[in-house]
Amino acid sequence: MTVTKHILVLHTGGTISMTETRNGDIMPSEHNPLLGADSFVPAGVELTSEEIFNLPSPHMTPERMLTLVKRVRQAEKDGADGVVVTHGTDTLEETAYFLDLTLDSAMPVVVTGAMRSSNEIGSDGLENLQSAIKTAASDESRNKGTLVVMNDEIHTARFVTKTHTTNVATFRTPTFGPVGLVTKDGVRFFQELINQEVCAIDHLVDHVFLIKAYAGMDGTLFDALPEDIHGLTIEALGAGNLPPATLPAIQRLLDRHVPIVLVSRCFNGVAQAVYNYEGGGVQLKKMGIIFCQGLNGQKARIKLQVGLSDGKRGQALADFVDNAVS
Q: Which of 4, 5, 49, 162 has the fewest Cβ atoms within 10 angstroms?
């Protein structure tokens, strides 16, 4: 006997719901072309669709992410077997990771999008949505955190990132690769992440910033940060190093008890305190900077903001952020 799975699709906007005009501009549609369509729904799935936002993904904010989290929590209470979120690709990885950090649920939550609008030749939106629904309806997807499904690949929200501005195969997981595939006959997982700590927050701490390091950098940008800053993430050079001229300004922030998280700006690898020279990782760690391993800058900032919003401070915050597997 086939069990019907009840899947809620929450549309938030993005290219997957946009249309291309005659002059080639891609713009939000007044009516989401995915709403009401059902020919792509896999067998054994009962689908409910809801447009919670209709936004280009650069318009997404942590406050809207939290609204999305609360809607997903309600969907589980209402008996949904899984939730799919359609999203613009520019900030998709940040929203997916926010969901991953804040949803304490066994229910599959899958985020997807498209690189080509609904009426472009070779549009990938319906295919990605169908694959995401298959994944959300699979029992194998339970207890795996938030997943990102694009181009027939299943990635963890924790490590996936957008790697190309226009290519349909843009979403990749550096270092580790995808955890599964969507095939014609189902969903296949090949690896699994260690469970992470979840923070079931209901509000957000603001003024958490992200700065990228560069050759010849000094303390100007750090000194320009507002007085009411709550946290800072730095994309550092190489394995986790900074130009020496940044150090006095960074120390001033630390003296004000501003938590600073450091990741590498490199596409692969993790930040480590291995270089012992002025501005090197060894010195930065001794100063009190938190090294975050395995995340890129935008996700480390999300993790820092979630941790602060959960009330974590001091060593508890450092333990939450400085964890290679969560």
A: 4
Please list the residues that pair with 147 across neighbouring strands.
Answer: 110, 156
Q: What is the pTM of this model?
A: 0.95
Contacts of 312 (CB under 8 A, 6+ apart): 199, 320
Token match 């002059």: residue? Answer: 23
In the residue annotation, 233 being an active-site residue is answered as: no
Q: Is 89 a catalytic residue?
A: yes
5 burial (CB, 10 Å; 0-12 / 13-18 / 19+) is buried
- Rg of the Cα atoms in the chain: 20
**Active-site pick, 2, 4, 12, 15:** 15
Which pLDDT tens digit goes with each residue over 242-296? 999 999 999 999 999 999 999 999 989 889 999 999 999 999 999 999 999 889 9
d(CA 6, CA 263): 39
Q: List the catalytic residue out of 12, 86, 89, 156.
A: 89
Residue with tokens 């689908």: 47
- Residues 83-127 have pLDDT tens digits of 999 999 999 999 999 999 999 999 999 999 999 998 888 889 999
What is the C-alpha separation between 47 and 67, in angstroms, rounded?
21
Cβ neighbours of residue 41 closer than 8 Å, sequence gap 6 or more: 47, 130, 133
232 in Cβ contact with 208 (< 8 Å): yes
Hey, what amino acid is at 166?
T
